[in-house]
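INFO worker-7 received task bundle
INFO bundle size: 2
INFO processing item 0
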Amino acid sequence: MKLSTKMMVSVALFPALLSACTPREYNMDPSMGVAVHENLAAQIVNPKAVPSTGPQGLDGAASKAVMDRYVSSFMAPPPPVNAFSIGIGSGGGSMAAPATSGATP
């Protein structure tokens, strides 16, 4: 299919004509983005806090005890729970009727 000269000229001029419809400059609102910056600032607990330069965390012995307890928790699986015994056993009867002082309703 062969394009005519008029068709090629109109296709070539279309972007130029279309760009004439766009505004010359974008007038941005001066308060644009203020809400985002206020929300980010509100998430900081104390923006004027002095950063701590001292050591953070636990000492060596406490850290080793924590890691040993964490590793040993994966050694043996937890004991199986019988689904039919949920709510049965010691610990008080939450299903018991409230005690009355002898008066019948």
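INFO item 0 finished
INFO processing item 1
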Amino acid sequence: MGTRVRILILFSLFNILFLRFASGITLEEALTRALSVSYTLKEQEEMIKKSRFFYLSTIDPYLPRFDLKGSYARIISPSTYTASSRENYSLCTVISYRIFDGGERYSRRKGAYFSYEKDMEKLKSIRQEVAYIVKKYFYEALGKREIVKTKEESFEKAKKVFELTRGRYEAGIAKKSDVLQAQLRMESALIEYENAKKEYEKSLESLASYLLLDQLQTLHVEGSLEKPDFKMDVNEIIKKALTSKPEILAQKNEIKRLEMAYKEKESSWYPKIDAEIQHQRQDTVFFPKIRSDQFVISFVLPIFDGFGRYYSLKGVKSEISAAKAKLEEMKRETESQIKTAFIEYGMSLRNVELYEKLVEEARVNFEQLLGEYQVGKGDILSLLNSEKDLASAKERYLRSLMEANISLFYLEKVAYLKEY
């Protein structure tokens, strides 16, 4: 018995030190940290910056262009020219503006804008995924924390039964085999208690790793494990998701971007009209003095340059059709995911109710057998089995609560019920 007492003392000291040095974290704090340190979010934020800079750069073709050109030319032949006449210097200043381009500038700018909007929707989707993972890890830790408490309670009950049986044995009422059976159950409960603590530590490690916390830092989760209370018609959920889910909105923006790409390709069939003001100086000296100014309006209409323009349009048109087909598939998949998640959520709530009743029945059975055993009735085996059944029912109940909350989080993710 001395060894078991020492083990109990060590566990008590562990609990005291754990509560003293552990740093508690709530779900809200975990979400806030995850959304601020996630590498995937930081990567997407940089992609958004890139898209935004690219969009800003598309304003340039709408602005006038200013060019300064200079040249030096030396005539090598014929040799009859004088030395001065064989050298020519020129300086030309040109201000140009494109008047018409068939919609090329507009479609390119709008395409860049839709690409930026697509990346913004992707960011929302990633934030939703990060939030789901954090909540999943957090509630796994929360559930396992409560299981630790249940296992500790089970160990205390097994210890009480063992001490009671040992007292009855010393009084000559119980048999030696009864004491051994009670001792075996107590030691088994102690092992389950140890394993539950290890499982809790592993879940905390997963949470700490995802939150980019120091692995040597000990955490514990704060909060209560309760039955989720969410009620909403599945058809309303689907209807809302099909109009607000980031993945679907991102694909719609991709279709719009491709439509702008089609218009950009189509602009190559139209003429390009430009206006220029030129100021030119040309002379045989380094600083030219002979001046000429001109205003030019020019246009270019490609009559034939091969078949590339036609096939480019056909290619983009096929890409648009593919993107539209992908959008419909995403809608179908979203609807299927929501229906499946809704069914699983309903089943998890049903399991919570069933295991809650099972816990109550197992508690009543254990208390009744314990009372009978204390007054000398009943047998030790039935009592130990009832205690074991009670511990198992409590664990299943806690796991059902944990799974019900996680299934709700998954439903929120696939249906985009919450925005982070």
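INFO item 1 finished
INFO post-check item 1: Residues 104 and 264 are 5 Å apart (CA to CA).
INFO post-check item 1: The first strand starts at residue 23 and ends at 25.
INFO worker-7 idle
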